[in-house]
Specification:
The chain has six helices and ten strands. By secondary structure, the chain is of the alpha+beta class. The chain has one domain: Protein Transport Mog1p, Chain A. Strand 7 and strand 8 form a beta hairpin. The longest helix has 21 residues.
């Protein structure tokens, strides 16, 4: 009888151990700290419109990517020194996502997409997931659970254009919840 109770307790605790391990962050405290303070050309997550405007006076509002009903405003610049364009998604008046576009000519100037990838890995650690598919030369994802950040970097095979996305996961969840609550899907 006591053995049955011990086995039962063991089975009940097993899912808890797997759940705890699945949510573990494989990144070092230094890498989590670095991604928490990630900034592209001085603009980081949490920045305001005025901070972006001070850095990029030419920013343009992207009405087609914005949604006033949920408080999402997307601004873009083409005057980056390191990339071809950068989109800043603001939600609640703060940057919650940065999208950095590298066109083929820019990636080639840097020695290929691996240069961007290697610089990122050197500072923030190895990716959590690498996906092989027919559309991308590379497709890498980083999950920083302890820092509440998500990063995605991929390069399109046909065009050799790359995209680096850095996002605040909690703010992204809040935005998605608001979008779902306000979705007018016709019924």
């Amino acid at each position: 009888m006591n053995n049955k109770i011990l086995v039962l307790i063991g089975f009940l605790c097993l899912p808890i151990a797997f759940t705890e391990n699945a949510a573990a962050d494989d990144h070092t405290p230094e890498q989590n700290s670095a991604i928490k303070s990630f900034a592209f050309e001085g603009i980081g997550l949490g920045a305001t419109y005025l901070e972006i405007k001070a850095k990029y006076p030419d920013i343009e509002f992207l009405k087609e990517k914005s949604d006033a009903k949920v408080g999402l405003a997307v601004w873009t610049t083409f005057s980056s020194k390191a990339a071809d364009s950068v989109d800043f998604q603001l939600f609640g008046g703060k940057v919650v996502e940065i999208r950095v576009f590298y066109f083929a000519k820019t990636l080639e100037k840097y020695g290929g997409y691996k240069s961007v990838y290697e610089k990122f890995v050197a500072k923030y650690g190895k990716e959590d997931e690498a996906t092989d598919n027919e559309d991308h030369l590379c497709d890498y994802t980083w999950q920083f659970f302890d820092a509440n950040r998500y990063v995605h970097f991929y390069v399109v095979k046909k065009t050799y254009d790359g995209l680096l996305v850095v996002a605040d996961k909690e703010a992204s969840r809040q935005l998605t919840a608001k979008q779902k609550a306000n979705a007018d899907v016709g019924f």
